[in-house]
UniProtKB/TrEMBL annotation:
Native source species: Euplotes crassus
Membrane topology: Multi-pass membrane protein
Name of the molecule in the record: Palmitoyltransferase
Lineage: Eukaryota, Sar, Alveolata, Ciliophora, Intramacronucleata
GO molecular function, one term: protein-cysteine S-palmitoyltransferase activity
Subcellular location, record wording: Membrane
Enzyme Commission designation: 2.3.1.225
GO biological process, one term: protein targeting to membrane
Length: 134
């Protein structure tokens, strides 16, 4: 388990890390799209409610962006949020590209789609990189 996320009301871990990353990415993309479209309207017509909405949505965007940046900084090292607090290297890291395939699957064209990755290991057995052992 990586951490419990109240937004998805579930724990984020090995089996749903891809879904969580895509959820956060698409959430940010929707907020940015909304802001881009509504700013055009705001420039033509000054609506008080639209200004208030922008003021309220910007801190939310920054918080979610921080979560995405944190997760994107951890996956090249194959670390979870809890494991990142440790000072030891992750014994499960095999390089950025291998870690990316571990999370998103080997078929690159399915990466932007929240699909289930069928894994015969079922999340119980993981390869260990002997170079990263203490």
């Amino acid at each position: 388990m990586d951490h419990h996320c109240g937004w998805i009301s579930n724990c984020v871990g090995y089996r749903n890390q891809k879904s969580f990353l895509l959820y956060v990415f698409y959430y940010i993309a929707c907020i940015i799209l909304f802001l881009a479209i509504s700013i055009q309207m705001l420039l033509k017509f000054i609506y008080v409610w639209l200004i208030i909405l922008h003021i309220l949505i910007l801190p939310i965007l920054l918080m979610v962006l921080r979560v995405l940046i944190n997760q994107l900084c951890l996956f090249p090292f194959n670390l979870t949020t809890i494991e990142s607090l440790s000072t030891q290297k992750s014994p499960f890291s095999f390089g950025c590209c291998s870690n990316l395939k571990e999370i998103f699957g080997t078929k690159w064209y399915l990466w932007p789609i929240p699909t289930y990755i069928n894994d015969p290991k079922k999340g119980f057995h993981f390869k260990i990189n002997p170079k990263n052992l203490p």
